[in-house]
Design goal:
Layout lengths: L8 H11 L7 H21 L3 H13 L5 E2 L6 E2 L1 H13 L15 H15 L3 H21 L1 E2 L4 E2 H4 L4 H17 L4 H11 L8 H5 L7 H18 L14 H6 L6 H4 L23 H10 L8 E8 L4 H4 L3 H5 L4 H4 L3 H10 L13 H4 L2 H7 L2 E5 L1 H6 L6 E7 L4 E6 L12 H12 L5 H12 L6 H5 L12
Parallel strand pairs: 5-6
Antiparallel strand pairs: 1-2, 3-4, 5-7, 7-8
């Protein structure tokens, strides 16, 4: 390592990660991680029925190797990198995973699967897994925020077409895995340096379609673990891999980055508790509109509605409001998850879970005249008050006009599931059960939820014992 005061940012992050212990973690950090395991596992279980989940399992099974770790929904086990790949695909496939703002990273979908897989394969205690994951979240979010342009109000990664979640998630998983493999600060630094050559993912799929985005977090989990395994085998990485002339930020962000985001407050402030949960399985830009519709649905009769205006931050209109004709008539349940008009209609018509659940976004609902007639009345517009808050929140102002000429308004300026409007552990359990009982028996799902919430005091294998062999994905 370098002399004090001369460490590179990579070395500083590595030294910090090496020193993180469970006993030194603030209680909110520990609780937040266990709750994110609960959230992520529920999403994974619900995603086992997707065709892409079976595809990922078949790909990973072909890699072969010793059965080290649980594959959620599978009757078999796979090497840690392969299991993390499959479970990471599951975690990101339903657009239901958590989000950090304003970076718009989805950290848990790669970190949780990777941490559980490496923890199982190494026989680590649940507390060691929690400590390693806490360090990984810091690396993920800090490396993402270093590439965030506050003046622009957007991630430089995204502006250049990169999916920051899969790229920064690779770095995070490398640090986590290296720590659980018992590497020193130098070894963790080498894993991080190696991982800068292994992260990837472009977001053209958000615009033009395709299912490739579903595998990004799985690949980040896989690549990060392999980077740590390479460091353990003796490969080395450059200490200037982040800020160097031909380093990470030059390659991905064209040299536009803020190194202060990497280290200021490191170890004093923790990013993990401030990550936003998703209460609804839809694009996060739609959530405040959903909440506003839920607030108003008891005060308006659907038959009396003549028009609906959904005011959102102007930059989000193109995502959830355009093209207007397709957003009003989405082509499938999956497309409906990215539609401001459809999500407002679904919220007004009622839903399950915490207000809307996966059952509200079926292909049948996307063809249902009740939903489509109501969605056709929704106009998505930019709103100045929402612009003032974005991108630290994704707010909405919903105005419903009824036949008597009255305008009913609901303003949601802080997203449900974020630190200003948090979900309780009981609400997170409702979300988990709504997802898990699609596949699990209710009593098994409740036992799994209890094990996860108390995982710090349970063996890791006991936490995961019910998530395999769900009868959906057979390892062949």
């Amino acid at each position: 390592m370098s002399a004090p005061g001369t460490q590179t940012p990579l070395q500083t992050l590595a030294a910090f990660s090496a020193g993180v212990t469970y006993d030194a973690l603030p209680k909110p950090v520990v609780e937040s991680f266990t709750h994110r395991v609960l959230d992520t596992l529920g999403i994974c279980i619900a995603a086992t029925a997707l065709d892409t989940s079976g595809m990922a399992t078949r790909v990973a099974t072909a890699w072969a190797g010793p059965g080290e770790a649980t594959v959620i929904g599978s009757s078999g086990r796979l090497p840690a990198p392969a299991a993390a790949f499959v479970n990471g695909v599951l975690a990101h496939s339903l657009d239901y995973d958590d989000t950090h703002l304003p970076s718009v990273l989805h950290p848990s979908a790669s970190i949780v699967p990777a941490a559980l897989a490496v923890g199982e394969s190494t026989g680590a205690s649940s507390r060691d897994v929690i400590a390693a994951a806490a360090a990984a979240y810091e690396v993920c979010i800090r490396t993402g925020m270093a590439g965030y342009d506050r003046a622009l109000g957007n991630s430089v990664f995204f502006e250049r077409g990169w999916h920051a979640t899969s790229i920064c998630g690779t770095l995070a998983c490398a640090v986590m895995a290296a720590k659980l493999y018992g590497l020193s600060a130098d070894g963790i630094g080498h894993a991080l340096g190696i991982a800068t050559s292994m992260g990837s993912g472009i977001i053209e799929g958000n615009r033009a379609g395709g299912s490739v985005k579903r595998m990004h977090c799985g690949w980040a989990a896989h690549a990060g673990i392999v980077a740590a395994q390479m460091a353990a085998a003796g490969f080395t990485g450059p200490v200037s891999a982040l800020e160097g002339r031909f380093g990470f930020y030059q390659a991905f962000c064209g040299g536009a980055f803020d190194l202060r985001e990497l280290t200021v407050g490191l170890g004093d402030t923790w990013c993990l508790p401030d990550i936003f949960y998703k209460p609804y399985p839809a694009n996060h830009f739609t959530h405040a509109g959903i909440d506003a519709a839920i607030r108003l649905r008891s005060s308006v009769a659907l038959a009396d509605i003549t028009g609906i205006e959904l005011g959102v931050p102007t930059p989000t209109v193109r995502t959830i409001g355009e093209p207007a004709d397709l957003k009003a008539r989405p082509q499938s349940g999956y497309h409906a998850q990215f539609s401001g008009p459809f999500t407002v209609a679904a919220a007004l018509l009622g839903g399950g879970g915490l207000g809307l659940s996966l059952d509200d976004f079926t292909d049948a609902h996307a063809r249902d005249p009740r939903y489509l007639d109501l969605a056709a009345k929704v106009r998505v517009v930019g709103n100045a008050d929402c612009d003032a808050v974005f991108p630290n929140q994704f707010p909405a102002v919903l105005r419903i006009t009824t036949r008597d000429g009255r305008v009913h308004e609901a303003r949601v300026m802080a997203n449900r599931g974020g630190p200003q409007n948090p979900l309780s552990v009981d609400e997170l359990t409702i979300k988990f059960l709504s997802n898990a009982t699609r596949v699990m028996a209710p009593d098994v799902a409740r036992a799994t939820a209890d094990a996860v919430i108390h995982m710090a005091d349970r063996p890791l294998g006991g936490v995961l014992q019910h998530t395999a062999r769900l009868g959906v994905l057979a390892v062949r």
